[in-house]
Design goal:
It contains 1 helix and 21 strands. The strands form 4 sheets. Strands 2, 4, 5, 7, 9 and 10 form a 6-stranded mixed beta sheet that branches. It folds into 2 domains: 18-148, abc- transporter (atp binding component) like domain (Coagulation Factor XIII, Chain A, domain 1, Distorted Sandwich), CATH 2.70.50; 154-276, Immunoglobulin-like, CATH 2.60.40. The protein has one helix at residues 2-15, and strands at 26-28, 37-38, 43-52, 61-68, 76-77, 93-102, 110-119, 128-129, 134-137, 140-148, 154-155, 159-161, 164-165, 170-179, 188-195, 203-204, 220-229, 237-246, 256-257, 262-263, 269-276. The chain has 277 residues and is mainly β. A hairpin with a 7-residue loop joins strand 4 and strand 5 (76-77).
């Protein structure tokens, strides 16, 4: 019995369009991932689609293992619940929905595959691989792929002069960006000064960049200086200089973190500190 099962599983892997396991009640269909190429920290959308003939006798969740081409261990996962219970009458016909995945900052360049299946605490559900889906054994199937390419603009630490200043005085900040290639749209820089231990923005230094980020000039090193006046009445303390790119109506683009820069959440980055005395 075990020998026959092993032969069947091997045949499934070799055919590519086969049963992920025997007696499958659901077919998993391919997912066209958008965008097809994404940078670390970026987001992509995966449209999942299942064709169910009859409900299962238990409720399953979806496991999603994202792994680099040629590797066996997942780089990251996106396990999730289905929009309907697999044991309910709603688990019949076509079930489709989208999931947004954020690529980890540490993901390296290369091709990645999306491996999915249905599971509960004790087992994995039988699945049939639809046309364009590859059965991988263990009741798992490859439904799609995408490429990670780190073409993000890199943000470097600021040179701040002076690093200590009084309320009402002016501080000069030198910004440095390294762009491997122009971006797909034009952004401005936001600059938030937030006191250590606080979340509220104390004052800002938002500004237009010296060249458009979608132009050929946004390439290699872009360096410039901006002055910011510390508002009168600013409380003494250390203020983080938090920077990123933004465009009204768009999400903030993820940036590559240079040495000495730290992430601050929401695609914003700490590039230095100013002490107010």
């Amino acid at each position: 019995m075990w020998k026959n099962a092993a032969i069947f599983a091997m045949a499934a892997v070799m055919t590519g369009s086969a049963w992920c396991a025997e007696e499958a009640q659901t077919t998993v269909l391919p997912a066209t991932v958008t965008p097809a190429t994404v940078a670390p920290g970026g987001k992509l959308t995966v449209p999942y689609k299942w064709e169910a003939t009859t409900p299962y006798d238990k409720d399953f969740k979806v496991f999603v293992h994202i792994r680099k081409e040629g590797e066996t261990k997942p780089t990251f996962q996106d396990d999730h619940s289905l929009p309907v219970k697999t044991s309910s009458a709603d688990w019949k016909g076509t079930i489709q929905y989208n999931r947004t995945i954020t690529i980890p900052e540490k993901a390296t360049d290369g091709s990645y595959i999306i491996v999915v299946g249905l599971y509960d605490k004790s087992s994995r559900a039988a699945l049939k691989a639809g046309e364009g889906v590859k059965a991988l054994g263990g009741n798992s199937c490859q439904v799609g792929s995408f490429t990670v390419k780190d073409d993000r603009t890199e943000l470097l630490p600021a040179t701040i002069t002076p690093e200590e200043a009084a309320p009402g005085s002016t501080v000069k900040i030198e910004y440095t960006w390294k762009a491997p290639e122009p971006m797909d749209r034009d952004y401005q820089a936001f600059v938030h000064f937030i006191k250590e231990g606080d979340k509220k923005i104390a004052f800002q230094g938002d500004h237009a960049l010296p060249v458009k980020t979608s132009s050929p000039e946004w390439k290699d090193t872009v360096r410039y200086e901006k002055n910011v006046t510390i508002p009168a009445g600013t409380a003494p303390g250390t203020y983080r200089v938090i920077v990123g790119l933004w465009k009204k109506g768009d999400s903030r683009p993820a940036l590559k973190i240079g040495d000495g820069v730290t992430a601050s959440g929401g695609n914003s980055y700490v590039i230095g500190n100013i002490t107010v005395k």
